[in-house]
Amino acid sequence: MRTSLMRTRNCALIVISVAFLAAMLYLFVERGSAQVHPDVDPAPPQKNDAHAAQHVQPARVVDAKRQPEVQAAETLASPPLDSATIVHCHRAFVGSRPIKTPYCDNPKSSLGMQQCQELQVTEAMHNQTMRGEAAACPSSLATASGYYDALRAAAQAGDVGAQRCFIQGYFNEGYDGDYISAQQVKDFVPLAKEYISSGLERGDWGVVQWLARVSHSIPDGLLGSAYPITSVEAIYKMNLLLTLGGATDDVVQRPQSIVKSLGATLSNQQTEDAQEWARDTYSKYFAATPYVRTPVTSFCATSVP
Description:
The chain is mainly alpha-helical. The chain has two domains: 79-201, no CATH class; 203-305, no CATH class. The protein has twelve helices and no strands. Helix 3 packs antiparallel against helix 4 (110-134), helix 3 (83-95) packs antiparallel against helix 5 and helix 10 packs across helix 12 (268-286). The chain is globular.
């Protein structure tokens, strides 16, 4: 009996030992399997895991380094606005500004009050129309400096209409105290000279007509810093060029008559030099271009004739 019990106990111990060995073997195999197959994803880290944050940071650094290059590429891929859009939008912004009529604050008669009220209604309707047109325009074109920058960019890109408008130099809105910067005024001079030369070399009669004007106003002062618009000799040269082109309309006067009307005289040498310049310029750049009148009122229009 005792022998039978001992055999039974020994069998039980053997079974337990075998089970223990099997369990240890199983764990060893599982660990080895995890090392042999590193592509098995471990449990996802928590969002606040500091180690995970260290691995994300280098990616953001790389993107930050590439950002200026991306911005530069986007800038080059975005062409400047055309001159017609620039001029139209700026005029819309300026026209949407409310106009104060101080004389309407204290009219001297009932008729004056009525006229002021009618004028205010008309101005309010105009402002509303202009605000509607300006709604689809870039807000940068609302200021004189923004208008200058946009025209400059388009002119540099070869837009003839933008070059004409830039030559004109009508950027400031003195009534509203809106002016271009001192640096922009400084930059205007060489650029205007460049565009005047380009206009003459492409046979642009509109540029000639603009520079041939006899009457000028305060806004013409900016152009005067780049070209001698009030010089009798310069006016004579441009009008002489117009007559060589066959201009016979009312805006073109006989060059000698212009000199006399301005109460000035030119020396024989000045006259000969001006005539030689006009003949040379006409034969080089304008002989193959028929004269087309460009009214000065539309020199900087929303479309180029």
